[in-house]
Design goal:
By secondary structure, the protein is mostly beta strands. 4% of the residues lie in helices and 45% in strands. It is globular.
């Protein structure tokens, strides 16, 4: 459904997911690499009327850790859209950041297309890519009375914080900026954990609404609905973490002495942005208002010393011991080809196993139940958990890999760091890098038997940490993650994540590097967790990011070589690692080329991938030693159409489509829309579901199904006169995001609901008057600004007749009132 105006109240859920980098007294290593941003939508197109508004929620992801960024529209559209939040203190690489875009069209705005961009800024630097925005301002249309416009006002919280640990009882304030509240108490609804706050407990003024709240010692959901003084909807939703526990932390130096002046952070394992910080005095700090959930403690001190451990809020006491740098190993074994030689493993339970790339099949829906994933209450008894652990060990194949001798094995190998009872296990690798190295990269995966054991979402929230530090330059970065914090869709049914990469850019000077790896059982040691390391790499050749190349199209990737002189010979190869799929370099139509300097390499997709990231571009030096690699997919979408039956059960837009049709089980075919959202489309329409089958089916980025209107004719009256200004004209229409499902399902499906048709005939028309539509389309898939499918031709034709009551379908033309694949004649009687 296209070119529509919608004013629908939308719930605002802004979850800022970021992990602050551990600071040190030594300046951070400067990287020459340019940060890049990827938005969840490439282009955003809306059609709105003056006085109307809409809310869109999008995410952006950075490939670098960023501090204190702003998100802002260009001046051309700044009066039409605002961004919340418009500043973010910490953005962590590869973690999606959610923002809400509030579109509001002031009265008097000129009709026509208003175009601009929304961009992320770091100081005075605009980070590519920007989000393209097109707003088509049109004349107002009539909407059902129950649809109220959204207020541009911003609601803020006081007395509590979404980023702090809150006390169990608080007085909460809801402030407003950009408007004022209506003071009618019947218009205010506040819900805390699904229970409405009594109206008698709520105090309302034009600028502030206050009430007292008692929280769970855990996660709390707050939702507020109200109206501003102009009768427009205002809304605020917040997740608040509260608790009654105090955690005392002791910080020791390398000599086991109390360390003062260390910066200590207590971070919630379920949401990394919820945290508290303190500086140690006489070697101790304390944190209050903690829930009984996983708490990740991190410390940094002078000399680029760090410490990290996971505990629970109810532990009362925990100790952090700062780690300096070990002596660098002279053994060249970052690829584990020599087993554990050159690694500092101490007494940690470590194994060397053959590398198995595997195919990652995520658990898509955190609410889904299966025979292997069973949700449990966080209050499960110790006895029950012990019994389940014993049963799990006896009946499953265990997530632990087969134990092999710690000796050199032929072929690619991985290192496995295993938990052993409750608490952390740690190992490290210290080595020197020569001049010209651009970054340090660790490739790893996390496996926890808590997931197949049935304890996802509970307080048994196992944890891992990967940190990389440079001694001379002082750069550092760490990734601390927990099972709950990553989300169930990050794991497969065996409790394993996909392979992950964590990097630290370095300044291309000789230096000493230390990689520290930690994995921990939290709350008890009954269900083990593992950290599996594939390789620690230090490339002098850096292959840029490449997510996918579209079949029969090309994509470019930057290959950076340092130092530039003397000119090296670097061989780039393309190979299919698993399944089917193929690509070649366009420079020589081959799978191998040699380069001698930094350059852009163009790759053409030949055959679509059967699984994600199964094609690898790899760089090797003249001696055949691997320097760097990057995995990508060849992407293709095949489109089909459904014209009868029910909306697909896995189409996430189904509930909204039901609100358009006025049917909780929406169907396909000629339909009269009568639901609360009927006004976002024509009232009479041929409801169809366009289905895109994505290859590879486990592709993990959004793909949009869109359409091009090739030609359309509209006829009206007894003489079937062609309506003036309503014929022909090719036009690309942007799908309404609420009627699309752009996320590929486990079966690779994406969806778009469409229902081209006609509005009700005006009351002034005589009973018996007909109106007809005949229209032809091409449907196509779009990813990253490029077409990722062939054009799929389809058509729709419909006729309605004016009656004394509700307008009805006209059935006087044989073959009318259908949609399908192909094209239709554009004549009123469907004759060629």
């Amino acid at each position: 459904m296209r070119n529509i105006h919608r004013r629908v109240p939308t719930r605002l859920f802004v979850f800022i997911l970021a992990l602050a980098m551990l600071s040190s007294s030594v300046p951070f290593a400067v990287s020459a690499a340019q940060p890049k941003i990827k938005w969840s939508e490439n282009n955003l197109s809306l059609q709105l009327s003056p006085g109307g508004g809409q809310v869109k929620q999008l995410t952006f992801t950075s490939d670098h850790n960023l501090q204190n960024v702003t998100i802002e529209p260009v001046p051309e559209i700044s009066n039409l859209v605002s961004v919340q939040p418009n500043t973010i203190a910490s953005v962590f690489a590869d973690q999606a950041q959610t923002v809400s875009l509030f579109f509001s069209i002031p009265a008097g705005t000129s009709f026509g297309l208003h175009e601009g961009t929304i961009h992320v800024r770091l100081g005075n630097q605009t980070i590519p890519q920007t989000l393209k925005v097109s707003i088509d301002v049109v004349q107002s249309v009539d909407l059902p009375a129950e649809l109220e416009p959204l207020s541009p006002a911003v609601i803020s919280l006081s007395g509590v914080s979404e980023k702090d640990f809150n006390p169990s009882s608080s007085n909460i304030g809801l402030g407003i900026s950009g408007s004022t509240f209506t003071t009618d108490p019947t218009t205010v609804q506040i819900f805390l954990n699904g229970i409405q706050v009594p109206a008698a407990s709520v105090q309302i003024t034009p600028t502030l609404i206050t009430f007292a709240a008692d929280f769970f010692d855990d996660k709390n959901e707050l939702s507020f609905f109200g109206f501003d003084a102009e009768g427009r909807i205002v809304h605020k939703a917040a997740t608040l973490w509260a608790g009654s526990f105090t955690l005392n932390v002791s910080i020791k130096d390398e000599n086991n002495q109390p360390a003062s002046g260390a910066l200590v952070t207590a971070r919630l394992g379920d949401d990394k942005e919820v945290k508290a910080t303190a500086t140690s005095v006489s070697g101790s700090v304390s944190f209050q208002n903690l829930p009984n959930r996983t708490i990740v403690l991190e410390a940094s001190a002078s000399g680029n010393r760090i410490a990290s451990v996971a505990t629970t809020g109810s532990a009362f006491f925990e100790e952090l011991k700062l780690k300096g740098f070990n002596a660098p190993s002279t053994i060249d074994n970052n690829d584990l080809s020599q087993g554990t030689a050159g690694w500092n493993i101490g007494t940690a339970p470590v194994q060397i196993i053959p590398h198995e790339e595997g195919t990652f099949i995520p658990l898509e829906d955190p609410t889904a139940q299966s025979s292997s994933i069973q949700s449990l209450s966080a209050q499960s008894s110790t006895l029950l958990r012990a019994e389940r652990a014993a049963q799990f060990a006896a009946n499953s194949t265990s997530t632990s890999p087969e134990i092999l001798p710690l000796a050199l094995e032929e072929g690619d190998q991985d290192l496995v760091l295993n938990t052993s009872g409750e608490g952390p296990e740690s190992i490290s690798r210290t080595f020197e890098i020569e001049e010209g190295v651009q970054e340090i990269k660790v490739r790893y995966k996390f496996i926890t038997s808590e997931v197949p054991g049935g304890y996802f979402g509970t307080q048994y929230n196992d944890y891992f940490n990967v940190s990389i530090r440079s001694q001379s330059a002082g750069g550092s970065a760490s990734e601390s993650q927990t099972m709950n914090g990553m989300g169930l869709s990050s794991f497969d049914a065996g409790g394993a994540t996909d392979w992950r990469e964590f990097t630290l850019p370095v300044n291309e000077a000789a230096d000493t590097i230390q990689v520290d790896l930690t994995v921990a059982n939290v709350a008890d040691g009954l269900f083990d967790s593992l950290l599996v390391v594939d390789v620690v790499s230090k490339p002098k050749v850096k292959i840029g990011d490449l997510k996918a190349v579209i079949k029969n199209d090309t994509g470019t990737v930057a290959v950076t070589i340092t130092p530039a002189t003397p000119a090296p010979n670097v061989t780039l190869t393309l190979a299919t690692r698993s399944g089917t799929g193929a690509a070649q370099f366009t420079q020589n139509n081959s799978t191998s080329i040699t380069i001698t300097q930094t350059t852009q390499v163009e790759i053409k997709g030949l055959t679509e991938s059967s699984t994600r990231d199964n094609i690898r571009i790899e760089a090797k030096d003249a001696q055949g030693k691997k320097l760097d690699d990057e995995d990508f997919s060849v992407l293709w979408v095949t489109i089909s159409i459904r014209t009868s039956g029910s909306i697909s059960s896995d189409n996430n837009a189904k509930s909204v489509i039901g609100q358009v049709q006025g049917n909780s089980s929406p169907t396909l075919g000629p339909t009269r829309h009568t639901g609360s959202l009927a006004a976002i489309g024509q009232f009479w329409g041929n409801a169809v579901e366009l289905v895109g089958t994505v290859a590879p089916k486990n592709f993990d980025e959004k793909i949009m199904l869109d359409r091009q209107r090739l030609a359309a004719n509209y006829f009206i009256g007894a003489n079937n006169s062609l309506e003036t200004g309503n014929s022909g004209g090719a036009k690309v229409d942007t799908s309404n995001v609420i009627l699309r499902d752009d996320d590929p399902k486990p079966n690779g499906k994406i969806y778009d609901y469409d229902a081209p048709g006609l509005g009700n005939l005006p009351p002034s028309f005589a009973v018996g008057t007909t109106r007809r539509q005949r229209i032809n389309f091409h449907q196509f898939a779009m990813w990253n600004g490029k077409k990722a499918s062939d054009d799929f031709p389809w058509f729709a034709r419909i006729s309605i007749v004016k009656t004394a009551g509700t307008d009805a379908l006209a059935t006087d033309v044989p073959g009318d009132n259908v949609a399908g694949q192909g094209s239709t004649p554009l004549t009123w009687n469907l004759q060629p």
